[in-house]
């Protein structure tokens, strides 16, 4: 037993003393991360339902514990196993998380909430961006911290506008609060995409001399990236559906069509980055399109396997990211760089946390008021309790701000610039850690406080679209999976009801769904397949397996 313990200690010391990124002992480092991810998954399962802790916090604590252990064993020299690589994060770890989000989203509630999602996720992020940018500029210039340019302040606004709603989504239940869940979920994805698009646009423009033309070009470039990224995601998703539908890979092997799905999903992200679009938005839209068309063009075994495979990759990537955030918080080199001015570091972190909360409140409540004014149905309006839940869900900061901060401030320069950059990186670490651990641990309690079980039941019933015409016309959710027989039945029902003009004026959301479903069944599914529109001529040998074991 003593020999085993001494062997583990020597192994940890060897990991800690090796220089990250030097290529030394890659197997040791990888083995350590695999062990930690396994421990996070097991611990998260055992503590499931515990009010004050969730899986991201567990992963961060494991990262902190590992970092402290390495610091002790190496005499305070190192707490890191790997160097944070921005390209590694955006190229390999973020895509499976975002794609799985698009694949698993409940499309009916998501698209019913699309107006509010875009309102909070895009326009709200812009409000938070401006408040954070100019608030930080005022603070830094007043106290004389750093020697930042306007581009740096705008980058700070984009960095700290990116939210992380994972903690809140683990508390909310799609079945109990479907519309609130879809709003928080959708806003989080659009928010990340908006923040990254803003950050990339800032890097492209010379903002040293701002005039009306530069502002116009900046706004035009922003909307161009959003539109192009969305269209590229739709195109790749439809292309994958068409190829799999026409070639019918399932008659030979389920593995081929599953491999093609994975590769084309990743291709959407890579092409977006290649064309300098928003890879986050592209792969998310691609996931939604694939879940509606491609997923039903494969055989049953491939469909079940693909769903679980993408979810598994997402879980592993999330745990890896939070583990690293915990270890990186103890990077001794960064804290040594700011040790000369600890007051500036503490003040900067406190100021950024305050700006995060101020920026969040400055758009959640005003935009909720605007949304309620434009919503006729009382059941679909956002109550004050729901607004508080939305406000709280956007206070957490995660891996995207960390990656953007390293991209902007993890570069060399003169001594003054290096210290200012170190202050911003340690500030980002502090904000991410504090918001995830403190705000995240309070999430369950506060959500249950403002939305008790009785409200959950009420919101469950109110989440379905209701209108004067809904008693006679069975309007189903957007992008629902219907067959030709369902369409013919809907046509017979609609011929006996009120005029389409009255239907549109009384319930525009249901009307859009009705016309989309007609177009989807009449054209889109006939070309690209989907549930009820794809017939597998022959079954593969693998399909005869009992795939219920995978569920």
- The low-confidence parts are 456-507, 537-551
Could you give the count of β-strands?
Answer: 0
**H/E element sequence:** HHHHHHHHHHHHHHHHHHHHHH
Helix-and-strand structural type: mainly alpha
Shape: globular
Helix content: over 70%
Strand fraction equals: under 5%
Structure in words:
Helices cover 73% and strands 0% of the residues. Helix 6 (114-143) packs across helix 9 (178-204) and helix 9 (178-204) crosses helix 10. The model is unreliable at 456-507 and 537-551 (pLDDT under 50). The protein has 22 helices and no strands. It has 551 residues and is mostly helical.
List the helices and strands and how they pair.
Layout: H1 2-17, H2 26-46, H3 55-73, H4 86-104, H5 107-112, H6 114-143, H7 150-161, H8 166-171, H9 178-204, H10 212-247, H11 254-274, H12 279-292, H13 300-328, H14 332-337, H15 342-374, H16 384-393, H17 399-409, H18 415-450, H19 453-462, H20 484-494, H21 500-506, H22 508-528
Helix pairs in contact: 1-3, 2-3, 2-13, 3-13, 4-11, 4-12, 4-13, 6-7, 6-9, 6-15, 7-9, 7-17, 9-10, 9-12, 10-11, 10-12, 11-12, 11-13, 15-16, 15-18, 16-18, 17-18, 21-22
